[in-house]
Design goal:
The chain has 3 domains: about 160 residues, Substrate Binding Domain Of Dnak, Chain:A, Domain 2, CATH 1.20.1270; about 150 residues, 3-Layer(aba) Sandwich (Rossmann fold), CATH 3.40.50; about 220 residues, 3-Layer(aba) Sandwich (Rossmann fold). The N terminus is likely disordered. The strands form 4 sheets. It has a 6-stranded parallel beta sheet with strand order 6-5-4-7-8-9. A 6-stranded parallel beta sheet has the order 13-12-11-14-15-16, with helices on both faces. The protein has a two-stranded antiparallel sheet with strand order 1-2. The longest helix has about 35 residues. Helix 19 links the parallel strand 11 and strand 12. It contains 27 helices and 16 strands. By secondary structure, the protein is α/β, with parallel strands linked by helices.
Length: about 650
């Protein structure tokens, strides 16, 4: 049992105990240690923000020009320019969606430019790791690849990807990877996005003072911009990553702070772009590097990840995961981390302040993401492996500065299996020669699997960390739903032991358990980082293309959930899922409560536009019930919500068919 962090705040509000804030034992232990060490964390800082701005929460504060800021109230229903609550809330929402789209798509741009350098022979230590993935992608876009070198194909593909960013009028080429019927929906609604960069710029233009004041028109552009992320930037990022670093396939590893070594040099990578972490993964296994760690008095070297960088190197190398978003400060508090290396996104500016209490050196590596108090070491892609080795040697040199009296590495960690790309799932379902989604579709039609749910998103200290994610996941598995996860939500379930095949035996309903046993998969499939949410749409599209479950994503029994989200990226993700015909459950609402019209549009009217909408459920069990209702209604419309006794073929049975 942990101690109480504090008893009362200065505002006489009871402050939660550690076990009321976080779900896993490692995080509870580190929050308690933070109190002893006198270290501030995001959880304590939340207590100082208890009186959060109601105008901001409702989205009715406008700072878009200097006649304001304006706040909408019953007595002041319009701002100085005349904008009402509907306009202000919608404009704020569009800007959030644009920011989320920009974050994912800039990540994608970085990878596309790297792919072009590799294709041109200027990639340094980077190579094309997966030629079949390159050629599959080329065929998707109609690029001739027969008889051509992989470099020539890669150059054409990279140049085509670049036009997805800078295109001005024509719709994104990547949109054609969606089901044909869904493409028709986008065309009919007038929301086919052109160049990704144009969509983001247009979002800022439309929301400038004195431009677009029609909340419906604004919100439709939020969906249009977000489609440029989900079916543009994010999808391109996953394809480029697979080509450069390899398509993920199932790997075993472990998750939680207990993966850190008490007597090893510990290095944590944190952020989102995989170019640096990929090289660190390679360098960390170099015999000379390992020898240097032992020469420094350590028993070895441990590389681990936080957040989505963790997921990138997990799904390709099996590198262990130290934790998700809200554990980044707690990892330092173990006292055992020599270096925390960051790139972009979800990096708290508090990290150097936390590190002052320990010997940990915080390193920033991206010129667009500097942090006061962190040492900035720019990452040069042309000397990538050399740079990675230099950072690791710097961490090894810091090992001697560790204070043994401050070291307390929690024992908690759990085994996991991750790396379920769409290609890997197809292989597991059918082998080399029969790889397809047919067995999955059959299992859904037969009722052994009721549906598919994608659970994504961050952690939020306003919610007990991981609690909603894991309560919902257990309930879904029990009700025979296969759960696909990315990002911090995947790490949450990894720490809870739900990412192993054995978890199906304990948690899954009978039909779903039978499928998991036959195929050898966990009930929760870890598909990658948050940019890999595009893999969820890719998987759902494979279900449509396989046949028997409708001809559009709005017909498939599939639902998306963002339980503990906190980022503007989550808004873009939610919008492109809804625009794709997939209902989205939110664990807490958007900042739109100040406009009944905007709320109604997002939560109700989008159903007529896209065949899906947003739903808000703050209780995970209520969310599970709502999800099962959506799934069952879709099953009813497909005519498959009935019992059907059909044999489930495992690999041995299929080989015996000899067809």
């Amino acid at each position: 049992m942990s101690e109480t962090i504090t008893t009362m705040s200065k505002d006489n509000v009871r402050v939660l105990k550690a076990e009321e804030r976080v779900s896993d034992a490692a995080s509870v232990a580190m929050l308690t240690k933070a109190l002893v060490d006198g270290v501030d964390t995001c959880f304590a800082r939340l207590d100082t923000q208890r009186s959060q701005c109601t105008f901001g929460k409702n989205g009715v504060c406008c700072r878009l020009c200097y006649m304001g800021p304006c706040r909408i109230t019953a007595k002041a229903p319009r701002g100085v320019c005349g904008a009402d609550a509907d306009t202000i809330v919608a404009r704020n929402y569009v800007r959030e969606a644009a920011s989320g789209t920009a974050a994912h798509s800039d990540h994608s741009r970085h990878l596309v430019l790297l792919l072009k350098k590799v294709a041109a022979g200027r990639g340094g230590s980077y190579k094309i790791a997966d030629e079949p993935a390159l050629r599959r992608a080329a065929r998707l876009y109609g690029i001739e690849e027969n008889g051509r070198t992989r470099e020539a194909v890669a150059l054409d593909l990279a140049n085509l990807f670049i036009t997805e960013f800078n295109g001005q009028e024509d719709p994104l080429r990547t949109l054609k990877l969606a089901p044909v019927k869904r493409q028709g929906v986008w065309h009919n609604r007038g929301i086919l996005p052109s160049g990704i960069d144009r969509m983001v710029v247009e979002s800022l233009h439309r929301t400038h003072m004195g431009v677009d004041h029609d909340y419906r028109n604004l919100l439709l552009h939020a969906f249009r911009t977000s489609l440029a992320d989900g079916w543009g930037g994010s999808r391109v990022a996953s394809m480029a990553s697979d080509i450069l670093f390899g398509t993920p396939s199932p790997v075993r590893s472990r998750a939680n702070l207990g993966v850190l070594g008490e007597k090893t040099v510990n290095i944590i990578v944190h952020g989102h772009e995989p170019a640096l972490s990929e090289m660190l993964a390679i360098a960390s296994r170099d015999p000379e590097i390992l020898a240097a760690a032992q020469a420094a008095g350590a028993e070895g070297l441990t590389l681990a990840g936080i957040c989505c960088t963790a997921n990138e190197i997990l799904i390709r190398h099996g590198i262990p995961v130290a934790g998700n978003f809200l554990q980044q400060e707690l990892a330092i508090i173990t006292g055992a981390v020599e270096m925390l290396i960051t790139d972009v996104q979800c990096v708290m500016p508090s990290l150097p302040e936390v590190a002052k209490a320990y010997h940990t050196e915080v390193i920033s590596t991206s010129d667009i993401a500097k942090t006061i108090g962190a040492a900035h070491v720019p990452f040069d892609e042309t000397r990538a492996l050399e740079n990675a080795k230099a950072l690791i040697r710097r961490a090894i040199a810091n090992f001697k500065n560790r204070d043994p009296g401050k070291v307390a590495v929690p024992k908690a960690s759990q085994p996991l299996v991750a790396g379920f790309s769409v290609a890997a799932i197809k292989y597991m379902l059918g082998g080399t020669f029969r790889a397809s989604f047919r067995p999955l579709n059959d299992a859904i039609i037969q009722g052994r699997i009721k549906g598919i749910v994608g659970v994504v998103g961050c952690n939020n200290p306003r919610i007990k960390t991981d609690s909603y994610v894991n309560a919902l996941t257990r309930e879904l598995i029990k009700h025979e739903v296969i759960v696909l996860k990315t990002g911090c939500a995947a790490i949450a379930s990894a720490k809870a032991g739900m990412l192993t095949p054995e978890a199906a035996l304990a948690l899954a309903g009978p039909g779903f358990r039978e499928v998991c046993e036959a195929v050898g998969i966990p009930p929760v499939l870890h598909m990658g980082s948050c940019v890999d949410n595009s893999r969820l749409l890719e998987a759902a599209t494979e279900v449509v293309l396989e046949g028997g479950l409708g001809d559009d994503l709005s017909e498939v029994p599939v639902v998306g959930v963002a339980p503990e989200w906190m980022s503007e990226k989550a808004i873009a993700i939610g919008c492109y899922f809804v625009a794709s015909g997939v209902d989205v459950i939110l664990g807490h609402p958007f900042h739109i409560g100040g406009s009944e019209n905007v709320t109604r549009f997002l939560n109700e009217e989008t159903r007529d536009l896209f065949g899906a909408s947003f739903h808000v459920h703050t209780d995970p069990l209520e969310a599970a019930a709502a999800i099962m209702d959506i799934i069952n209604r879709r099953r009813e419309r497909l005519g498959i919500n009935r019992k059907a006794e059909r044999k489930l073929y495992d690999m041995k049975d299929r080989r015996a068919l000899n067809v």
